Amino acid sequence: MKKHTIIDIIKGIIVGGSMLVPGVSGATMAMILGIYDELVKAVSSFFSHKKESAWLLGTFCIGGAIGILLFAKPLLYATENWNMPMMYFFMGAVAGSVPMIFGKAGVRKFKLRDLVCILIGTAIVWMFAVLPTGLFVTDPDRGMIYVVLLVAAGVIAAVALVLPGISVSYMLLVLGMYESTIKAIDDFSLSYLLPLAGGVLLGVVLTTKILETAMNKHGRTTYLIILGFVIGSILQVFPGVPRGLELAICPVMFLISFVIIRKLSALEN
Asked: Where are the domains of the chain?
């Protein structure tokens, strides 16, 4: 139990540290680390296995909070100052998870409908990527409407939190709430954070319940659509073709993260 608890906290730290980087999906990182399915089941069937679910979610969330506090700013700094190598590093990590997700789908013989499912998932991520920003700007002077809008925004953000390939931070950018959310975290503004957190909690419960049902009843289709999400996230963070010294650095960064994730996947198996 102790060993698994430490591992779950470490995974939470990694997910928490990466999820505030625009374009990087926390759910994808959780899937890469092999804890995604466990988290979905723990949330959707919480009341059936209260003790086990609470322990997993609690330790993971503790790790996530530590990761946000420790690594979010350094990761954001690195992404801003060495954007191209960092994006290739993230792309390598995501690419390394593709064989694992394909294996979870249980595909023995690839069919045309499998390709359609992957394309559907990729298209959904692309649709989020082309949405205009500033769709959900909130104003404290609107009173109760302000609270309701924050709850609704939390529900929408929860969908991005649960589904791999869709970045929570990018969704907040689309809603026009990224800077205000980061500021609210820094200022510890409960009037902003509590309604938003309530919406996120509601959205997570609703989304994970639907997702677990889909995984159990239509596992192959669900995992292939998730694979489409993941592939779409690679396209979303693609920064272009590197030049100069970065032409040598970026492939190395991609390969390093790819190999690390493949090794982690082998350990999970």
From this structure: 2-268
